[in-house]
Structure formats: C-alpha cells, structure tokens
Amino acid sequence: MSTPSTDRRPPVSQKVDRYDGIPQYSLARILGVWAAATAPMGLLAWVVAPWLSHRLDGPDPMAESLLICLTSGLIWIVVLTLALLRRELGGLEQSRVCDALWLRAPRDPKSGRVGGKVWWWLVPFTVLAAAFEALPIDPTGPMPRDLPKFIDTTRAEHFLSGQWGWFGMIVLVAFLAPVAEELLFRGLLLPRMRAVFGKRDWVASGTIFTLYHVHQPWSMPATLLDGVFAAAYPSRRYQSTWIGIVTHTFPSFVIIGVLLPLVLK
Predict the structure, then answer these.
(1) Which of 23, 45, 226, 240 could form a disulfide with 132 if both were Cys (CB 3.0 to 4.6 A apart)?
(2) pLDDT tens digits for 68-87?
(3) Dihedral angle, C-alpha 93, 9, 250, 125, nearest 10 °
C-alpha cells in the first residue's frame, strides 16, 4: 500500500470517478459470484469439517479440521476473485488489477485529494468496526466454531499450549479472511453493483457479505453493521478497498494478541 506523505491534488486522470471503466454486473451475476463464494464455505464448515475431524488425532480434531477447511475456503475465494478478474481484463497486469479492485489510496469525494490526510479516515471507521464487534448482539455459536467464545474456554488453552503449528494456521486464517473477503466483496463486487443498486450499492454489499457467513451464522448481527457501515460505506465513499481491508483486519491483531499467551503456556 503506497501512501504519500502529504495531501496532494490529483492530476486530471485521477479526478475521474473510479467507477468509470468498471463493467457493471447484472443481479444474476452478482448472486452467482456470491453463491460461488458462499456455497463452498458452507459445505466446508458444515459437511467437510465434521467428516475430516473423525480422521484427525491431534489435541482437538474439530478445531483442527475447521482451520484446515476455512483456510481452503479462503484460498478458493482468492482464486475466484483473480479468475473473474483475469477473465474481465484478459490478464492480471498489476496496475490494471489495482484499478479494477480499487486498490488505490482513498480519494476524498469533495476535495479530490488522494491519500495523505485522507488516510486519517481509517481511524474513526476502525474504531466504529471495533465498537460493532464489541456489541453483545451475536448469539453464542457452537464450540469450537465460535472463536471469541472458544478463546475463553480451557479447551482453547489445551488445544494451543505449545502448538506453534496450529497457532500459525490461526494467524494465517485471521489475516487471510479479511483480505480475501474484502477483495471479493469490496474490491470486485462493490464497484460492479451500481447499475443494479444505484447509490445504495454499499448497503447491498454489506448485506450480501453478511449472508455469505453461512459458515458462522451466529456472527451475522454484528457483521451486518460492520459490513455496511465500517467496510462497504467508507470503501465506496473513498473508492478504496484498502479502507475495508484495514477496518476488517484490525480485530485479527486483537485475536492474535489474546491467543499468543495460550501458546506460550
């Protein structure tokens, strides 16, 4: 992520709305991409993971199988995003990929400034995302699927004590999930939903992102608020997927910080 040290007025080429040149999807195609991401995650979490857990013999076979399956599902989302983009662009040239996925510094919609002080908008939206995550509105999910609840149990300590390999897998999932999901839902889909949803494309983006979480449906209440207001809205307003990536990734640092002492025991 390249950020200039000071605000700067964009040249004429950067003043163009970043929606320009982005092909628009039909509703059927939007739902098709959503299903292509959602169905594998659901099957991996609810069908493959239980099956695999009976074939593992580690300290917590179910937790292990979930980590393996979720990692596989997230890798599939990255592959899906790149495959769709390659088909659209005819290749994966870096500059074109960055434009197509809005992987550019945030652009102030009023002043036209790109980067610089505009990055400071990350602070309130990250705080907002943390506030949504802290709201006691999510029901409790089954163990060990509900990671925040799992962390508070002795089962988590038993699973992770001295287990650097599984801890590394958790770190991978914790950071791969927000990057993969934001690239698909905010980088690929959001800029291509305006023809169907108009100026409320960010609301639709947060909604289908919530419904994607069939692999952990108990998280949907907070995910809806977070996905709509702390990820989709700022990503659309500043036309930068980096904002959604950062706000979505912040809780991962908290999770890793909480789990590390369990590994060290």
Answers:
(1) 226
(2) 999 999 999 999 999 999 99
(3) -130
Neighbours of 126 (CB within 10 A): 19
Q: Which long-range contacts (CB under 8 A, 24 or more apart) does 29-36 make?
A: 30/189, 30/192, 30/193, 30/196, 30/208, 31/208, 33/80, 33/84, 33/184, 33/188, 33/189, 34/189, 34/208, 34/211, 34/212, 36/80
Which secondary-structure segment (H or E) carries 39?
helix 27-43
Query: Whose structure tokens read 């979720």?
Result: 70
User: Which residues, 6+ apart, have CB-to-CB distance to 85 below 8 Å?
Assistant: 92, 97, 100, 101, 188
Q: Output DSSP code: residue 114.
A: B
More confident residue, 111 or 80: 80
Rounded to whole angstroms, the Cα distance separating 220 from 84 reads 26
Rounded Cα distance between 231 and 250, Å, is 12
Place of tokens 């409320």: 200
Residue 107: strand, helix, or coil = strand
Q: Residues 237, 124: contact at Cβ < 8 Å?
A: no
Place of tokens 């040290």: 5
pTM over 0.85: yes
Amino acid 5 reads S
